[in-house]
Amino acid sequence: MDAASGNAASTDAASADTPADADGRLARIAAAIAEPARARMLCSLLDGHARTSTELSVVGGVSPSTASAHLARLQEDGLLRQLAQGRHRYYSLAGGDVAAALEALLVVAGVQRAPFVPATPSRLRAARTCYDHMAGALAVTLHEHFIGAGWLAQAGDGYALTGEGEHRFAALGLDLAALRAQRRRFACPCLDWSERRPHLGGALGAALLRLALQKGWVEQDLDSRALAASPQGRRRMAAALGISLD
């Protein structure tokens, strides 16, 4: 074996996990969850709604500065991710594996979670504009449909259209080539401030709002950002998108 091969083999051996390494990581993650304030913060995020550090400090019963230290630890251990939305920073669970582990621990502990209760006025929570795209519960439902139906696929921190998505959005009359040519992101998740889950932003999200207004699926409130979706408008939107909006 030459020196280069020997060095590579030594590096590979050094980087390989050992039982002690795995046990150490497990112990560190368990310790991160075991601290009561951090446990309350993590469990509050199991409903899928992101929260700010201020909100999580209230949930944890600690000061904002202490909450920041806890959140940094949870991020470092891969339990949380931070989402930037304008000047605000939100936190959510790092993924489904983290949620499943917490759910299992809650079952063992016999704990029930309190539901998320938004304080947003009902008209704005139902549907509204967010800059030039749609937000609110309706928009979050549409976003989840696009992901679940396989129209959108994760691409970095945004979305790309799948073959099915290309066909479906083009069938709605959207000029996808023109949208891609714009000097902005094509499609991306935008965290909804009332639902604390993503809706669709970017050029595609803006085009979808314009289409919804043109088709009469929703109507713009003259005095606010609220969007009104009549029963007839919702039925027509549901039929066009192949989704249930009941």
Taking the alpha carbons of the first and last residues, their distance comes to 69 Å
SS elements, strand count: 11
Give the helix proportion (percent range). 40-55%
Mean pLDDT: 86
H and E order: HHHEHHEEHHEEHEEHHEEHEEH
Radius of gyration: 22 Å
Short description:
By secondary structure, this protein is an alpha+beta fold.
Topology of helices and strands:
Layout lengths: L2 H13 L3 H16 L1 H9 L6 E2 H8 L3 H13 L3 E6 L2 E6 L2 H14 L12 H5 L1 E3 L2 E3 L1 H12 L3 E4 L2 E4 L1 H9 L4 H5 L7 E4 L6 E4 H14 L3 E2 L6 E2 L2 H11 L5
Could you explain the architecture of this structure?
With 246 residues, the chain is of the alpha+beta class. The chain has two domains: 16-109, Winged helix-like DNA-binding domain superfamily/Winged helix DNA-binding domain (Arc Repressor Mutant, subunit A, Orthogonal Bundle), CATH 1.10.10.10; 122-241, no CATH class. Helix content is 52%, strand content 16%. The protein has twelve helices and eleven strands. Strands 1-3-2 form a three-stranded antiparallel β-sheet. Helix 3 (36-44) crosses helix 4 (53-60) and helix 4 (53-60) packs across helix 5 (64-76). The model is unreliable at 1-5 and 7-15 (pLDDT under 50).
Provide tags for this entry.
single chain; 246 residues; alpha+beta; Arc Repressor Mutant, subunit A; two-stranded antiparallel ribbon
